[in-house]
Write a structure and sequence with these properties.
Low-confidence stretches: 237-243
CATH superfamily of the largest domain: P-loop containing nucleotide triphosphate hydrolases
Largest sheet: 6 strands, mixed
Number of domains: 2
CATH class of the largest domain: Alpha Beta
Oligomer: single chain
Number of helices: 10
């Protein structure tokens, strides 16, 4: 008997007038799984992410997390159910140091003492202890990305959704992020929407490819990266010159 999904969509559809951005998508992620979601521009990745996170209400279909229907729930309600959300643009409290940003997230579910312990753990896990007392408003974009990830993880979610988490990061920061995500997999589930194919190679085990709003292919990283049609739809001209 197969392991039940922690999060699953069934027939998930999002229409904008006559445009179908997400078209009857069936998708499932198990507990402890790290799944990467890729596809060319316009494939429906961002719209699908917004349907999962309550930023959009799907036109049809369902989103079930831990046996609870999420369709129609607000982003705040979804987070309270145990889903951490990391969007493309860091959402931080400028004017406060990184430590206080993370502690405020932990305080939502824990005592002050426990939240301080979690904050220290997150600073160490993400390897941003050096940023602890720096005002986040003065940090570089990649550093802000890492602080927000620490905030998301401080809520101790069962599932984390990350939309292009490596965007704007230096090579060193991307390497640090890849290490963190690999370490987290197993303890929690992660869904990573990403354009950076090298970053995908660094973290992925299972990949879902979206194309024209539908699931085009699912499989392990080696299978997906070697698939000629995936190369053609995702890499375009690059694939034509590939060996």
């Amino acid at each position: 008997m197969s392991e039940p999904a922690l999060l699953a969509t069934s027939g998930l559809t999002m229409r904008f007038g006559g445009v179908v951005a997400v078209d009857q998508v069936d998708f499932a992620v198990k507990a402890g799984e790290l799944r990467c979601l890729i596809g060319p521009n316009g494939a429906g990745k961002s719209t699908f992410f917004k349907c999962l996170t309550g930023q959009l209400r799907p036109t049809a279909g369902s989103v079930v997390f831990a046996d609870q229907e999420l369709r129609g729930a607000t982003t705040h309600e979804i987070v309270r159910k145990g889903i951490g959300i990391k969007t493309q643009v860091p959402n931080l409290f400028d004017g406060l140091p990184a430590r206080e940003n993370i502690a405020l997230s932990a305080l939502q579910n824990h005592s002050k003492k426990r939240s301080e312990e979690i904050t220290d753990q997150m600073l160490e896990l993400i390897a941003i202890t050096a940023l602890a007392n720096r005002d986040v408003g003065h940090l570089a974009h990649g550093e802000r990305q890492l602080v927000e990830l620490a905030m998301v993880l401080a809520g101790q979610p069962r599932l984390v959704l990350l939309d292009e988490p490596a965007a704007g990061m230096t090579a060193e920061e991307r390497g640090r992020l890849a290490n963190v995500l690999r370490e987290l997999a197993g303890d929690m589930s992660l869904i990573v929407v990403e354009h950076d194919m090298q970053f995908i190679r660094d973290i992925a085990t299972e990949i879902t490819v979206l194309h024209r709003g539908r699931v085009f292919l699912e499989g392990d990283v080696a299978e997906i990266m070697a698939h000629r049609e995936v190369q053609e739809i995702y890499l375009g001209k690059e694939a034509n010159g590939a060996a």
